[in-house]
Amino acid sequence: MKILGCLFDLDGVIVDTAKHHYFAWKSLADKLAIPFTELENESLKGLSRLDSLECILRSGNLEVSSKTKIELMEKKNQLYLQIVDSLGPDDVLPGVKELMLELRNKGIGICLGSSSKNASSILKSIGLFDLFDGIVDGNHLTLSKPDPEMFIKCSKILGLTPSVCMVFEDAESGIEAALSGGFFALGIGAVGSLKRAHANVQDLDHMTLKKLQGLVDSHESN
Ligand code: B16
Ligand code: MG
Q1: Which of 14, 96, 114 to mutate to test the pocket of ligand 1 (most atoms within 8 A of CB)?
Q2: Which CATH fold would you assign to the domain 18-84?
Q3: Which long-range contacts (CB under 8 A, 24 or more apart) does 217-222 make?
Q4: CA 136, 140, 143, 145 torsion-angle sign
Q5: CB distance 21 to ligand 1 below 6 Å
Q6: pTM (two decimals)
Q7: Is 9 one of the catalytic residues?
């Protein structure tokens, strides 16, 4: 497969906001007296805000009304926004901007596929918004990862089939979404973690289109 499109997750791939989501959920869980660890947070990565809240409430055997869920989500988001408000261009993870510029120069389509409803404002704060050919985020979706809807929408925006697109993901839910949509799934994180991904790299520092194509080629020759 020759890579023609690259679909980027935001939190944990472009910017290290996963830790801020954890901090905000943890502070909410503490107020609700629900134990919540960093390990439990791993399984929430990539899930929508509502799906994440419902997982936390379930783990604490807590049932609340829809109105209360909305209030709790607002509280969590206010705290999250207070933290990410200070993000700027220096917070882009190493190698991401350089890779995106190379991809653009070489005519590769670039789309964002993030569950976050805050994605556009974060991209503007870190100065990457204009490098995307398309943006699909939590405001445009009915189904969240691991459903492939988000990445399918991205590939349609780029006018490409999933079979020529690579998905960059740090979450198991995102890898599953990429696999079930027929995309090449590149896991970003500790090598050996996202085991279901087609290939796995620690981060995108010094990543190039040639290296990405090499990962696809070596997967296909195995
Ligand atoms: P928000 P991604 C996801 O973003 C995060 O991984 C997940 O932890 C978060 O709950 C979700 O966005 C919703 O975010 O509350 O900002 O709408 O990894 O898909 O870029
Ligand atoms: Mg992510």
Answers
A1: 114
A2: DNA polymerase; domain 1 (1.10.150)
A3: 219/184, 220/1
A4: positive
A5: yes
A6: 0.94
A7: yes
What is the chain's pLDDT, residue by residue, as a tens digit (222 residues)? 999 999 999 999 999 998 999 999 999 999 999 999 999 998 899 999 999 999 999 999 999 999 999 999 999 999 999 999 999 999 999 999 999 999 999 999 999 999 999 999 999 999 999 999 999 999 987 788 999 999 999 999 999 999 999 999 999 999 999 999 999 999 999 888 899 999 999 999 999 999 999 999 999 998
| Edge-to-edge strand list for the sheet holding 184-188 | 134-136, 109-113, 5-8, 165-169, 184-188, 199-201
Q: Check if 76 has its Cβ closer than 6 Å to any atom of ligand 1.
A: no
Q: Where are the domains of the chain?
A: 5-16+89-221, 18-84
- Ligand 1 lined by 114 (C-beta under 6 Å): yes
User: Does the fold of domain 18-84 match that of domain 5-16+89-221?
Assistant: no
Cα–chain center distance at 81: 17
The atom of ligand 1 lying closest to the CA of 51 is 10
Class (C level, CATH) for 5-16+89-221: alpha beta
* Residue 187 and residue 199 in contact, taking contact as beta carbons nearer than 8 Å: yes
